[in-house]
């Protein structure tokens, strides 16, 4: 028997895709998205007949939902190759902290993988009782990406060490802009 804890959170985002696959997606636009995560215990155990919890829901989800609400919600998602990044750095540097920077276009696929890695880092920092089994990122009511397994097998190669990639850190970061600039 497998027990799973499933949490869903909604957030709004803006992005654009500049790699040339779709002209309409190269214009900045936004979506109201849902991220649904399925967590499993690292070591499944029998309920204790008293509290009968894997972990209180609040303990399992609060830090993750803080990240969604305070870092991801209403952030702009841009490829690290997007010239809009340099525009913000020059004209509105105070707003660069609200930009999610992705290796390549910020598609639903890569955001699902980056969020999978971020939540895995957060859960590990919380003691590792739970692990991410699956993530579903619904970009629109008609488009969802579902991802399971090891996100490091799916993410593109980057020449930065793992700790200099925001998605590997159990903090609230959404970019590595100072690193990318140097
Ligand atoms: N594989 C992917 N393809 C596309 C992605 C993506 O993340 N992964 N994203 C987009 C755009 O963000 C776009 O806003 C949504 O695309 P699309 O389905 O083409 O547009 P609609 O919402 O209008 O689709 P309908 O289902 O017809 O309403 C594009 N492709």
Automatic annotation (TrEMBL):
Instruction: Establish whether keyword Plastid is in the entry.
Output: no
Q: Which GO terms label this protein's molecular function in UniProt?
A: 6-carboxytetrahydropterin synthase activity; metal ion binding
SUPFAM superfamilies attached here?
Tetrahydrobiopterin biosynthesis enzymes-like
Q: Do you know which InterPro entries this protein is assigned to? A: 6-PTP_synth/QueD, 6-PTP_synth/QueD_sf
Keyword annotations of the record: Lyase, Metal-binding, Zinc
Q: Pathway it belongs to?
A: Purine metabolism; 7-cyano-7-deazaguanine biosynthesis
Reactions performed catalytically: 7,8-dihydroneopterin 3'-triphosphate + H2O = 6-carboxy-5,6,7,8-tetrahydropterin + triphosphate + acetaldehyde + 2 H(+)
Residues spanning the signal sequence: none
Q: Which cofactor does it need?
A: Zn(2+)
A Pfam family it matches = PTPS
Provide the E.C. number(s) assigned to this enzyme: 4.1.2.50
- If you read the UniProt record, what top EC class would you report for this enzyme, in one word? lyase
**In UniProt terms, what function does this protein have?**
Catalyzes the conversion of 7,8-dihydroneopterin triphosphate (H2NTP) to 6-carboxy-5,6,7,8-tetrahydropterin (CPH4) and acetaldehyde.
Assigned protein family: Belongs to the PTPS family. QueD subfamily.
Name-wise, this protein is: 6-carboxy-5,6,7,8-tetrahydropterin synthase
Species whose genome carries this gene: Swingsia samuiensis
